[in-house]
Amino acid sequence: MDFAFTREQLMFKKEVLRFAKKEIVPRVQEHDLKEAFDFESFRKMGDFGLLGLHFPTEYGGEGADVVTTVLAGEALGEAGVDGGLTLAYGAHTFLCADTLFRNGTEAQRKRYIPKLASGEWIGCMGLSEPDAGSDVASMTTTAEKRGDSYVLNGTKMWITNGPIADVAVVYAKTNLELAHAGISAFIVEKGTPGFSPGPPLIKMGVRTSQTSELVFKDCEVPAENLLGKEGEGFLYAMQTVEWDRSALLAPFVGVTTYMLKKCADYAKGRVQFGRPIGAFQAIKHKLADMRIFGEAARTLVYRIAWCKDQGRPLNHLEAAIAKLFIGDWSLAVTNDAVTLHGGYGYTHEFDVERIFRDTRLAPIGGGTSEIQKMIISKLI
Amino acid sequence: MNFDFSEKEKTFLAQVSNTMATFSKAQDLESGDLSMIRNHLTDSLAVLAPLDYLKIGLLKEGAPLSGTLALMAAMEQLSGIAPSIFLSVEMSTRLFGRILRLQEPTDDRLKIVEKLASGEVIGAVALSESAMNVENDPLATVGIREGGRIAVSGAKSYVVNGPIADWFAVVGRLDDQTAVYLIEKEAPGLTLTERIETMGYDGLAICGLGLDSVMVPENHIIGPIETSRCLDLLKLWENQILIAAALGMMKSSFEAARDYAKTHRSGGKPVIAYQEVGFKLSEMLTLYQTSQLYAYRAAWMADEDPKEAGVLTLCAKVFCTEAAESVAGKALQILSGEGYRSGGAAERAYRCAKFGQIAGISTEIARVRIGDAALGRR
User: Fold this and answer.
1) What angle do CA B198, B203, B208 make, to 5 degrees?
2) Is residue B58 domain-shared with residue B87, that is, in the same domain?
3) Which end of chain A is more exposed for a tag (fewer CB within 10 A), N or C?
4) B69 and A295: CB-CB below 8 Å?
5) Considering only CB atoms, which chain B residues are within 8 Å of A256?
6) Where does A7-122 sit in CATH, by number?
7) Boundary residue ending a domain (B71, B99, B117)
8) What is the pLDDT of residue A135?
9) What was the pLDDT predicted at B29?
């Protein structure tokens, strides 16, 4: 057992930190308050190589391993990049582009991956529905084969990047009589007749990410837009869980480091009763709890990443544990960070307030904590 | 990066676990009077010595595994079998034993190390005093030079293995620094209090020590060492043991609750089928597995970057010892009346867990130190 990163991995993390602090973080607050997606930062992430980091170079990627990819995610959080942008990045790169790459034909890969890796196009994934969240098999969106086309009907919900996506990986039932085995995946491009995203939903946190419905009304897509094979869509959706429990959780780990530093700086500068509040034991305890959580979370995430690098199938128990732990515990420490800042922490002036709102998604998105407990209890 | 143990490590860990499980099956290692406690420990050492378990972290030659991480994993195996035996073995072997290896060990000290590794002697470390907090108050146990020897006087509390130890490592002041005095059990001037009854760890022998001008030869003095360096090191080793103890408690109480939940039926189905029970088990396993990784990483860091390991070990200590209480408490709840009966794994773990949060460095002081590190102090 060895927890060391390679020198190259650590150097790359430093580069991402430097890049994010300089190129992204200065615009975070403005975009959060406006609830606006930061297209400029997203493109810069593409130019830097982050959006296609793990894809082979011939598709515009950097050929990075999973651990390096996860380190990049942690660095974004550690730099102070908001949860909205890191969520958009996760949905784009891992839920959309990676699914296309793993299951697409060579023609599909060549058409989409370079554009997605550069950030020229933005991707999203349509899986959840208004009445089908974690219970994926109950989805009602259908894809009916008609000659050389599939006709999609239904509504997808909670789609990150929905309003701004150029391409979507959409899951729909090709056989209503089957549960999971009746689900297939399709590539749907923006502008396809019958396909329309809803307006952005107004959210408590991760406000720079744009979330909406995707509506399909007799939306006809060519048969070659079927991704992989009919009936295998659920398997493709499950493949993304590996990323969801590593790369998408990584920014939460990083943001804990960022938040701890912010809180420590504040505690050193804020004087009450004649001394910095950092001199009070209760404040030190809060800082300690942030560090304790961050260190615990880090190891869980990198275990998933390392196993993926070894080519091992996802250990669903370990994945659910990582998600449950980070989802639930991150709330407590971000709440502490707000409290530590007193009244200031409740204002937009200090970004612990944004972090608190962003982190509130952690036990909800990608499968609620309750769903993780269901998974774990079934696997015990 | 590698999250797997090697085949050699896995084989050894299984060997420790199987050997001790078979050994403990025949007797309850958590009950008994002082003579029984001594017998249990002696018998356990006799079983562990042939495995070379006692050599890990103590002797390079003949040790089946090397490195603090491997040591942590090995300790975890033992701690899951019997909490008191575990603490007794480790406080003797790994805490007392490693103190003997500090600085340039004399031949005398190395001979004791050899005996510890073969399970022939039992050691105890005497650090705590009445003030309890060695962070804020200087040690009152003091050595005064008298010719070629040192006269040591003072009082120590909560000495694990005290009533059954052959040797004591007594931590005290010397020349305004800290030294460890190596004292044999029959040394004139050394007195032991009655065994201290405790909430948990029924099978552990704890007592206080009185030292009235106990004469210690120069070659039985380790140090003087700069006080904070000495205390940091002792606390680090002690905390590593307490972390492993917490892992064992979590393992045994989780497994007891899991097995019960799968077999005990209510309303026509096993109680694990109810979310109230299944979800609790999920939370318990999450804490347990997270603690395990935490412990391994902190142990790994102890070899990789000792400076960074100090704070990381404190983090792991706080997390793991608090998780142990939480897991044991949830296990009790799942086991309901069965869990409340004395002698069960969860009930025992629930009582023992508190010790881990108090001993070594209390979780409160640990948090202060972690907070100080975040503030750039110390």
Assistant:
1) 50
2) yes
3) C
4) no
5) none
6) 1.10.540.10
7) B117
8) 86
9) 85
User: What's the confidence (pLDDT) of residue B8?
Assistant: 96
> Is residue A38 classed as helix, strand or coil in its secondary structure?
coil
* B28 and B101 together in one domain: yes
Query: Cα separations (Å) of A162 from A91, A97, A200, A242?
Result: 10, 14, 8, 22
Taking CB atoms and an 8 Å cutoff, what residues of chain A touch B278? 373-374, 377-378, 380
Cβ atoms of A315 and A333 within 8 Å: the answer is: no
Q: Which of A3, A290, A317 sits opposite B297 (nearest CB)?
A: A3
CATH of the domain at B206: 2.40.110.10
How many independent structural domains does chain B possess? 3
B318 neighbors B363 (Cβ within 8 angstroms) = yes
In angstroms, the separation between the Cα of residue B223 and the nearest Cα of chain A is: 32
Q: Please tell me whether residues B78 and B212 are part of one structural domain.
A: no
- Indicate which CATH number applies to the domain containing B17: 1.10.540
Considering the domain architecture, whether residues B194 and B161 belong to the same structural domain is answered as: yes
Residue A201 contacts B where some CB pair is shorter than 8 Å: no
Distance of alpha carbon B17 from alpha carbon B81, whole angstroms = 8
> What is the pLDDT at residue A343?
96
Q: Do β-strands A167-173 and A123-126 pair in parallel, antiparallel, or remain unpaired?
A: parallel
Q: Please identify every stretch of chain B with a pLDDT value under 50, giving residue numbers as ranges.
A: none
Is B1 a domain residue?
Answer: no
Looking at the fold, whether B242 and B362 belong to one and the same domain comes out as yes
Domain boundaries, chain A: 7-122, 124-237, 245-379
Query: What's the confidence (pLDDT) of residue B26?
Result: 78
Q: Is A300 in Cβ contact with B278 (below 8 Å)?
A: no
CATH 3.40.1260.10 correct for A124-237: no
Fold topology of A245-379? Butyryl-CoA Dehydrogenase, subunit A; domain 3 (1.20.140)
Q: Using the Cα atoms of residue A171, residue A174, residue A176 and residue A182 in order, give the sign of their dihedral.
A: negative
What's the CA gap between B145 and B148, in Å, rounded? 7
What domain range includes position B137?
123-225
Put simply, the answer to whether B285 touches A380 (Cβ < 8 Å) is yes
A268 touches chain B (CB under 8 A): yes
Query: What is the C-alpha separation between A377 and A351, in angstroms, rounded?
Result: 37
Residue A260 with chain B: CB contacts under 8 Å: 374
What integer pLDDT is reported at residue B335 of this predicted model?
97
Q: What is the pLDDT of residue B24?
A: 87
Predicted pLDDT at B31: 78
Q: What pLDDT does A296 receive? A: 97
Given CB atoms, is A278 within the 8 Å cutoff of chain B?
A: yes
Query: Of B201, B225, B249, which residue sits at a domain end?
Result: B225
Q: Which residues of B touch A71 (CB under 8 A)?
A: none
Record: contact A295-B294, CB cut-off 8 A: yes
Interface mutation vs chain B, best among A275, A295, A303, A330, most B CBs within 10 Å: A295
Cβ-Cβ contacts under 8 Å for A138 (sequence gap 6 or more): A131, A132
Which pLDDT belongs to residue B136? Answer: 65
Q: Does A282 touch chain B (CB under 8 A)?
A: no
Q: Do A3 and B1 touch (CB under 8 A)?
A: yes
Identical fold for domains A7-122 and A245-379, yes or no, is no
Closest CA to A265 of A216, A193, A185, A337: A337
Task: Give the pLDDT means over successive 10-residue stretches in chain A (380 positions).
Answer: 97 98 97 97 98 98 98 98 98 98 98 98 96 89 97 97 98 96 98 96 97 98 97 95 93 96 98 97 97 97 97 96 95 95 95 96 94 96
- Chain A residue closest in CA terms to B259: A380
Among chain B, residues having any CB pair with chain A shorter than 8 Å are 1-5, 69, 73, 258, 272, 275, 277-279, 281-283, 285-286, 289-290, 293-294, 296-297, 300-301, 304, 311-312, 315-316, 318-319, 364, 366-376
User: Would you state the pLDDT for residue B133?
Assistant: 60
